[in-house]
Amino acid sequence: MTTNTRKCPVCGKPRSAEHTPFCSTRCRDRDLVRWLDDGYALPGPVVGREEGDD
Fold first, then answer.
1. pLDDT < 70: residue spans in the chain
2. Are 21 and 15 in contact (CB under 8 A)?
3. Is the dihedral of CA 31, 33, 34, 38 positive or negative?
């Protein structure tokens, strides 16, 4: 029988109800630091340099 346990997106351990979607405060904080340090990026249009910018 296979259980469909959702895993922490940071470390892969089973999630904790208290820290969903993470397993612990540590993983929750690691994810926040990634966002704050520009470790994640949302896709968007390519921004080109305008003529005359140096």
1. 1-4, 51-54
2. yes
3. positive
